[in-house]
Structure formats: C-alpha cells, structure tokens
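Lab notes, practical 5.
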Amino acid sequence: MGQVTISKDGRVVVSPKDTMTGAELKAITSVPPERIVTIVQDGQTKAVGDHETVHLADGVFVSDVPDHQAG
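Output from the prediction step:
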C-alpha cells in the first residue's frame, strides 16, 4: 500500500494509502456524510459506497453527488 495523489474540486489531496473505503475518501476530501463519493478513474465514473473498498491510482478525480435516498 502506497500513497497516491487525488484531486477534489481543484484541490490536490495526498491519500496515505492506495486502497480506501468511501467513508475514508469522504473524510480526506471533506465530502459531507449525506452525499455519495464518486471517482473518475481510467475515464470511468463510479459511485463508491461508504463501506465499499476501491483501489486508487495516482491522479484519480474525486467528486460527490446527492444521495437520493436520504431524507
């Protein structure tokens, strides 16, 4: 496990490891808990659940979307 550089809203964030859960991604990129993390990697956009684990590559773009099941 090594660190990787990711970006969120134009801000570069260094992840301490290359495998993280959605909840961990939220924490390091300041995504509010009621939203869903998405990653863009290799041209594909993927939603990442809080308990789902994903492998991150350098340069991955992180964003977030509303959780339509909330509220």
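Observations recorded by the TA: The chain has one domain: 4-66. The mean pLDDT is 92.
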